[in-house]
Design goal:
Shape: globular
Radius of gyration: 24 Å
Domain Aminotransferase class I/classII large: 96-440
GO molecular function, one term: transaminase activity
Number of helices: 12
Keywords: Aminotransferase, Pyridoxal phosphate, Transferase
CATH architecture of the largest domain: 3-Layer(aba) Sandwich
Number of strands: 16
Order of helices and strands: EEHEEHHEHEHEEHEHEHEEHHEEHEEH
Distance between the termini: 61 Å
Organism: Hebeloma cylindrosporum
Pfam families: Aminotran_1_2
Largest sheet: 8 strands, mixed
Strand content: 15-25%
Helix content: 25-40%
Oligomer: single chain
Bound molecules: pyridoxal-5'-phosphate
Number of domains: 2
Structural class: alpha/beta
């Protein structure tokens, strides 16, 4: 393996990165078949000074009815105060027009700065960003860019239910890596990889949610992250770091670095493809997420976009860009601090009710990020019995009593039974939480009575 070096552009040591050719064996046949869009690949050239472009079939913006767009936004530091932001002129024209596949330049630049601030990754160091219609869009495209039908993939287990169908429809063997209160169990991953059958191609990707995991609520510790990164290098796989709850961290200790940041401590960078989402931070309906990672993988994602939805909506990108530029990084940080405290308070309210009603009837670990409690129903006192299944308790008994949650089985790639349940604490009020957990208690008691 040849490693290329690039100057960091600062006085720091040379940063080593994996060369583009390294990713050849990581691209799926589908990605290799895709050709650059003849029009979209030339669109950036339209910005050449003095050039008259007859290239794209862009409609003439003067025919569009929109003449300006204004919206009110709360101040990130003084949420009682609002200001009006207006998008017009050239900004509006861009927002109403087709744009670059990877995203609107002003938003890409802002996000680039954000990644530098939060992950220490500098521009032109062998990585870049693409914007997608939510991180889900980019994860889907990344999976199809890298995984061939039938190939094995590594997924933490339980896993975000939104990726199971992606791997399922590709007929992948989903190899489950155990997790616990400290996040993904690197020791379980090591065993899987070290006992991998000789001659069978190893998985190319590991999917994990390191902060406030959906569904377990757990945050991977620094040690676990370092071990996983080391394994990625030893066994040649790419970590799909899906981190939509990164900004919803409310633990007391300083936050752990992301995989994307931590790989700067590795002998070379290039094993991490990171997904961020603005859904939990600005708006879920606005559908903006971004992928950060090696150019070769981002290029494959962009080629998918260029043949599917062409690009993420220019208008929503323009709105988000306007807001974020007006806030600056300090404003964004203040906003994040405020919303993470909001979720910490929600977590406390929920846990208070769980202690009140579910002590002895359920077990859980306390999340330090995100919006989920993952708890095990104690459906019997018999220590010899298996844990049982939360499915009937949740889908039938709890629902009949007026509470809706998710049985853990939906987060297991092979859909086996489990006594675990996922509950989201983001929306319910204190009163509603109290009622919901009381109803859950009644459902568990009923199930236990039947199990006697
Ligand atoms: C772990 C995880 N990944 C991805 C997503 C999708 O996020 P987005 O709204 O950015 O598409 C979610 C949404 O709940 C999620 O929990």
């Amino acid at each position: 393996m040849t490693i290329t070096s690039e100057g960091t552009g600062t006085s720091g040591p040379q940063l080593k990165r994996l060369p583009d050719a390294y990713y050849d064996s990581f691209l799926s046949d589908l990605a290799k078949e895709r050709r650059p869009s003849p029009i979209r690949s030339l669109m950036p050239l339209e910005r050449t000074p003095g050039l008259i472009s007859l290239l794209a079939g862009k409609p003439n913006a003067s025919t569009f009815p929109f003449s300006s767009l204004s919206f009110n936004a709360r101040s990130p530091t003084h949420p009682d105060e609002e200001s009006t932001l207006t998008i017009d002129g050239a900004e509006l024209e861009q927002g109403l027009q087709y744009g670059d596949t990877a995203g609107l330049k002003s938003l890409l630049d802002w996000i680039q700065g954000l990644q530098e601030l939060n992950h220490g990754r500098k521009k032109d160091e062998g990585w870049r960003i693409s914007i997608g219609s939510g991180s889900q869009d980019l994860i889907y495209k990344a999976v199809h860019a890298m995984v061939n039908p039938g190939e094995p993939v590594l997924v933490e287990s339980p896993v975000y239910a939104g990726v199971i169908p992606m791997f399922h429809s590709l007929h992948c063997e989903q190899i489950e890596v155990e997790t616990d209160a400290q996040g993904i169990r690197s020791s379980s991953l090591r065993i899987i990889l070290e006992q991998w059958p000789a001659g069978k191609p190893k998985p190319k990707v590991l999917y994990t949610v390191p902060y406030g995991c959906n569904p377990t609520g757990m945050t991977a510790t620094l040690q676990r992250r370092k071990e996983v990164l080391q394994l990625a290098r030893e066994h040649n796989f790419i970590i799909l770091e899906d981190d939509p709850y990164f900004y919803l961290y409310y633990g007391k200790a300083p936050r752990y670095p992301s995989y994307f940041a931590l790989e700067l401590e590795e002998p070379e960078v290039g094993h991490v493809l990171r997904f961020d989402s603005l859904s939990k931070v600005l708006s879920a309906g606005i559908r903006i997420g971004f992928a950060s990672g090696p150019e070769a993988l981002l290029k494959a994602i962009d080629q998918h976009t260029a043949t599917s939805n062409l690009q993420t909506s220019s208008l929503t990108q323009a709105v988000v860009s306007k807001l974020l530029h007006s806030w600056g990084y300090d404003g964004f940080t203040a906003h994040i601090e405020r919303i993470s405290s909001f979720y910490a308070e929600k977590r406390d309210i929920f846990e208070h009710a769980m202690k009140k009603y579910l002590t002895g009837l359920a077990e859980w670990s306390t999340p330090e990020a995100g919006m989920f409690f993952w708890f095990k129903l104690l459906l019997t006192d018999d220590p010899e019995a298996d844990g049982g299944d939360s499915q009937v308790v949740i889908r039938t008994k709890a629902f009949e009593k007026g509470v809706l949650a998710l049985p853990g089985t939906v987060f297991l790639p092979n859909g086996r039974q489990t006594p675990y349940v996922r509950a989201s604490f983001s929306l319910a009020t204190e009163e509603e939480v109290d009622k919901a957990i009381q109803r859950l208690r009644d459902a568990i008691l009923e199930a236990r009575a039947e199990n006697v």
